[in-house]
């Protein structure tokens, strides 16, 4: 089964507002709505990894059965993207995870299909920049064990985890891998 994960639990400090709930007038949608619609086109089930501040607003946006808003497990809460990935992966052993950060509004479903054609990969643009939070992973006991170890030993860099798990890049178009950490006017 293909499980979609949208990472929307970050603090968005530099952006100065919640990225998930950012209403982007270029698309006439919130970034999380763009991400959910993109994932629903591909995944059997979609999880939005939220934080305490945005979870209720996200639940109101997505009452449907195929979209689940969840908080990180209590023992790993606040430990970054790996905690959101682990929270979902723990409940979906032996499934495939299609992971996207919420702040990639230009990413296309076709590019995610390209990722899904390869096991254990992440996005890289044509200039060689890695985009670790756009990935396709095959969950197994080994991966779950390494995720758990990374989280409980505070080894929280996604890049380090991917290197340890031998997860490789797949090149996607630069135009789709544009994001922003600063307010958009």
Automatic annotation (TrEMBL):
<keyword id="KW-0501">Molybdenum cofactor biosynthesis</keyword>
<keyword id="KW-0479">Metal-binding</keyword>
<keyword id="KW-0342">GTP-binding</keyword>
<dbReference type="GO" id="GO:0006777">
    <property type="term" value="P:Mo-molybdopterin cofactor biosynthetic process"/>
</dbReference>
<dbReference type="Pfam" id="PF12804">
    <property type="entry name" value="NTP_transf_3"/>
</dbReference>
<dbReference type="GO" id="GO:0005525">
    <property type="term" value="F:GTP binding"/>
</dbReference>
<dbReference type="GO" id="GO:0016779">
    <property type="term" value="F:nucleotidyltransferase activity"/>
</dbReference>
<dbReference type="InterPro" id="IPR013482">
    <property type="entry name" value="Molybde_CF_guanTrfase"/>
</dbReference>
<keyword id="KW-0547">Nucleotide-binding</keyword>
<dbReference type="GO" id="GO:0046872">
    <property type="term" value="F:metal ion binding"/>
</dbReference>
<dbReference type="InterPro" id="IPR029044">
    <property type="entry name" value="Nucleotide-diphossugar_trans"/>
</dbReference>
<keyword id="KW-0460">Magnesium</keyword>
<dbReference type="InterPro" id="IPR025877">
    <property type="entry name" value="MobA-like_NTP_Trfase"/>
</dbReference>
<keyword id="KW-0808">Transferase</keyword>
<protein>
    <recommendedName>
        <fullName>MobA-like NTP transferase domain-containing protein</fullName>
    </recommendedName>
</protein>
<feature type="domain" description="MobA-like NTP transferase">
    <location>
        <begin position="4"/>
        <end position="163"/>
    </location>
</feature>
<keyword id="KW-0963">Cytoplasm</keyword>
